[in-house]
Amino acid sequence: MQQAIPLRYNSPVKHLSGLYVITEPALRDPIETAQAVLAAGVRLLQLRDKSATTRELARVGQELRMLTRQYGAYLIVNDRLDVALAIEADGVHLGQDDLPVALARRIAGERLLIGVSAETIEEARQAEADGADYLGVGPMFATHTKPDAGAPVGPERLRAIKHAVRIPVFGIGGITLENAPAVLQAGADGICVIAAIVGAPDPEAAARAFLHMLAQAGE
Predict the structure, then answer these.
(1) What digits encode the pLDDT tens for the residues 192-207?
(2) What is the pLDDT of residue 9?
(3) Of the ranges 71-80, 136-145, 204-213, which one carries the lowest mean pLDDT score?
């Protein structure tokens, strides 16, 4: 069910866990989040902070870059290609209203993985054609973390997109331990989680629980 993201450069990480944790400063400090989930075994982390200044995002990003290197994990930066390149992150994740994927690929070359948010088959196919390495499809379920996320598209949309593209597809939006199996059964290569881990009383334990569930699903 899980597969490796095709690597475009010499990365220390050869295979990815299906768990992709995204920071949310409103729920927990990103550095605290990173320390907890990396210790749990998470190897794919996204720095997301819509309200931070460029200077602050770069500062936090540099600290996360050091942490992820210690653990041999990927660091992806949400939206900001400039920051991703400046801190030597492993990738950037772009939304439909962000920098066009083809332009980002032209600027980044093979230095970065590029992830793209997609809700429809058309968006997914276009992202793949433009050079995306993976997709974040959602929202799977109702989510309070991203108020502007729109109505849930559900696991069946992910299933349709998975059949339409060749690159890995991650489900995102309102994913919990209880509903994650439905996303995996739809063919997701992994799941993106924010609130259920970052907002948990013990994010390390929450991340371990998700990793355990994913390991069982892959058996």
Answers:
(1) 999 999 999 999 999 9
(2) 43
(3) 136-145
Residue 3: pLDDT band with limits 50, 70, 90:
very low
Which of 117, 157, 162, 208 is flagged as catalytic?
Answer: 117
Q: Which CATH number fits domain 19-217: 3.80.30.20, 2.40.170.20, 3.20.20.70, 3.40.630.30?
A: 3.20.20.70
- Mapping DSSP onto H, E and C, the string for 119-156 reads CCHHHHHHHHHHCCCEEEECCCCCCCCCCCCCCCCHHH
22: which strand partners? 46
Radius of gyration of the chain measured on its C-alpha atoms: 16
Of 146, 157, 162, 208, which residue is the catalytic one? 146
**69 an active-site residue?**
no
11 carries an active-site annotation: no
Which H or E run contains 173? Answer: none
Domain residue limits, the chain: 19-217
* Residue of 48, 65, 157, 162 marked catalytic: 48
117 is catalytic: yes
Beta bridge partners of 170: 136, 190
Identify the bridge partners of residue 75 per DSSP, sorted by sequence position. 45
CA distance 85 to 17: 24
78-128 pLDDT, tens per residue?
A: 999 999 999 999 999 999 999 999 999 999 999 999 999 999 999 999 999
118's enclosing H/E stretch is strand 113-118
The predicted-structure confidence for 30-53, as pLDDT tens digits, reads as follows 999 999 999 999 999 999 999 999
CA 205, CA 40: separation in Å to the nearest integer? 7
